[in-house]
Amino acid sequence: MLIKFQQAKFIASYAKAEQLPPSTCPEVSFVGRSNVGKSSIMNKIFNRKSLVKTSKWPGSTQHVNFFGADGIRNGVHFVDLPGYGFARRADKDKERWRDLVEGYFNQDRNFALCVVLIDIRHDISPLDIQMVQYLADREVPFMVAFTKADKLSGKAAIKRQVQALAVQLGRAGAGDMVCIACSALNGEGVSDLRSLITDAVEQAYQSA
Ligand SMILES: Nc1nc2c(ncn2[C@@H]2O[C@H](COP(=O)(O)OP(=O)(O)OP(=O)(O)O)[C@@H](O)[C@H]2O)c(=O)[nH]1
Ligand SMILES: [Mg+2]
Q: Which of 26, 34, 67, 151 has its CA 20 to 30 A from that of 40?
């Protein structure tokens, strides 16, 4: 493995988009509904228990958190973003989410890959569709990871559900995209995620 995922380090946490430093290497970001497991899958990718802060309660990640890993050219940054669709969230919090997430993607940055996480047990939500279309509009390379695959029983059920959800995304006009199942609990799909991330970062270096 080129990228030294296991030696990833916390870099910094930003409460406002304008505090973000210019990007210095390809960035891999994680987006999705609040509580879908963004921070958890990052820990699993890094093979670390709690480098990235997670919680049982939605709204755990409130800032844009940067992590870094070496091993590939000038390195790679991983970006943990706050989640969307937290129903009880106040308008002020929603505004902050918009400022942070749209603020991040609106900047002129080296976007290698955005991993959109969607719970494998639920239908695709309008917010997921909006997110995917938003990334497509901005030409940010992205893929979809259906998470919490451990909650379904058996490989056949997982495969069927991945196909069904991919069809839902396709029907919504989201276009073609890589879709995989993963789990932060049992590690399913994590090695595939690591290779997809590595390829995307290499691609970003080649096209820079
Ligand atoms: N069974 C199972 N639970 C998971 C998985 N991934 C995350 N969880 C649980 O889901 C909850 C939320 O996980 P987080 O990683 O904090 O979710 P998040 O998407 O970062 O949430 P926000 O920061 O609030 O947007 C925690 O209780 C996790 O233990 C998974 O793959 N399988
Ligand atoms: Mg989080």
A: 26
